[in-house]
Amino acid sequence: MSDLVLTERVGNVLVATLNRPEARNALNPALIDELSDVLRSADADSGIRAIVLSGAGTVFCAGMDLKAFAQGGKFDGLVWFFQEGIGTPVIAALNGSALAGGFELVLACDLVVAAEEAKLGIAEVKRGLFAAGGGTTLADRVPLSVALEMGLTGEPVTAAYAWQIGLVNRAVPADRVREEALALAERIAANGPLGVTMTKKLIRQRRWAEPDEVTAVFRSADAAEGARAFAERRAPVWTGK
Known about the structure:
This protein is an alpha/beta fold.
C-alpha cells in the first residue's frame, strides 16, 4: 500500500480518504487499484460494518485522470465495485465536488453526505466520452428528464439541489460533512450485520427475500441475540453469525 488512500478505523467504521489532492483526487490506475484493495479488504473484515469514503483537500474526486488516460493507462480496477458493489454499506462523504468518474464512484456508494456547495455531475460528453462507469444508470435515481439533462449537457448540479431530488441523503455545511457521515455510519454499524447486509442486497436488487435468505438471517445467532437484548433492555452484542 502507498498513501494514495488513507485509512482510519473509528470503532466499527472504516474511513477511507482518496489522497491525491494535488490532482483533485483524479482517478489514475494506481489510485483505482489501491482503492479497490481497500474496499475488498474492508468488506472481508467482519469488524468493519460501514465504510465512509471521502477525499483529501477541497474536491472529492474530479473523475478520471485524463493525462493518464491519454498515456494509455488501464482504468478497469473498480469496474467490479461499480457493477457489483460490496456487502458492507458505503457512505460517500463529499467534502467537495464529485464529477465524471468521481460522481460515478458516488453512485456506487449507498448513501451520500455532501457539502452544500459541492458540484455533482457526469461531464464525460465534454471530453468526447460517455459515463461508462455507471453514470448512464442515473435515471434509476432521479427523474429521467434530470438524468438526460445532466448526461447530455455535462453540466453539474449543486449538492443542495441534488438533495431536493433525492440524489444525496444529507446536504450540510462543508465543515460538518465528516461528522454527519460518521454519525450515519455509526447508526448503521450499531445494527445487526447480517440483517444490514441482507437489507442492502435486497433493496439494491429490488426484490423479496428467497426462503433460504430468510432462514439464514432469522435463525442466526444474531437474530436470537437481538430478541434477548430487547427483552433484557440492553444493547445487543453482535457476532455476525
